[in-house]
Amino acid sequence: MRSEFLFTSESVSEGHPDKVADQISDAIVDLMLSKDPESRIACETMATTQKVVLAGEIRCKPMYDEARWPEHAGWAPGARDEIEEVVRGVVKAIGYEQDGFHWAGLSFENHLHGQSAHIAQGVDAGADKDEGAGDQGIMFGFACDETPDLMPATLHYSHKILERMAADRHSGAAPFLEPDAKSQVTLRFREGKPSAATAIVVSTQHARGYDEGANEAELHNYVRGVVADVLPAELLTNETVYHINPTGSFEIGGPDGDAGLTGRKIIVDTYGGAAPHGGGAFSGKDPTKVDRSAAYIARYLAKNIVAGGWASRCTIQLAYAIGVSAPLSLYVDTHGTGTVGDDRLEGAIQGITKLGGLTPRGIRTHLGLNKPIYAKTAAYGHFGRKPEGDLFPWERTDLVEDLKAALG
After folding, report:
1. What pTM was estimated for this model as a whole?
2. How do residues 346-361 score in pLDDT, each as one tens digit?
3. Catalytic site residue from 44, 286, 395, 402
């Protein structure tokens, strides 16, 4: 690693159009898992001016079964209304009540339909095989010791700035804020550690007419105050450059200003560019899809390796083939920071029986993923979050003792 460099990560708020789409898709995942833990869901959302459209493939017999309800085109009586109610509820909770995007006034289309039988036959367990992966692909997990949550500092602070602003908007402490916002943090690193914030970028949607004179100054002072509360004081200096709404007025935002689609913020969702990404999005997918579940277990493994003191940085890659249960490969890279060999860590992981061989079912069982726990993941990152109850189980560090035993 270079002795000194700059690195930048960005985040987007819950009101960003792509995040609106992610939250709707994951709310549909939660709805169907709450009805049937073995549901299969691949729900894509498009949000634009006064419109939300769902598309994708599902299998959730309490809600959709072509054999039971052919007269309703497969949908149980009332199921389509329930889905629409969930969609409008997500938009309302975010806070969209604007002329161009309003939870009550938007038009809604539901084009979800039954899952392909050819995909199902590869995934479903049978008498002679374990459950297969829902698709081929590569997934990465990462952890580092830059923050207490073992996340890259640039992304951690980018998320925290927007979380704080959203909390102030919802509480009424910052009534001039509207839901759509983006942040970006650039840090100087010396000897692998954050030493100074060189640039902070925040663009936030605001109430109409709130970009002139004293209002503009108040907005700028507010954002700088949030940054000062979120970032450690030693990182902020007289040389820190702030870009707050650098283009000027930002009144038209959210899906009215830019169409939103599920799965377009995969770097915001993961590690802010500090680690590789396999390319698959998370939101809208049930946990048989290894794009989601294998990325979660990879983060879990990397975090436990760093938490256990075997490395200060760790990247893990897993690879799968559709319909095949066992991973094709496991790769551990501690970037020269490891206290034991990377090959030994690979062997230790493979030897821990509770992980179920890192098969899709083994992952879902160990982490408890067949539950309606995904709506909370769809804004402010899937990683670096506090594990509470059933939520964010991949953030636990309860594998340290098993790794210690396996490493001897």
Report:
1. 0.95
2. 999 999 999 999 999 9
3. 44
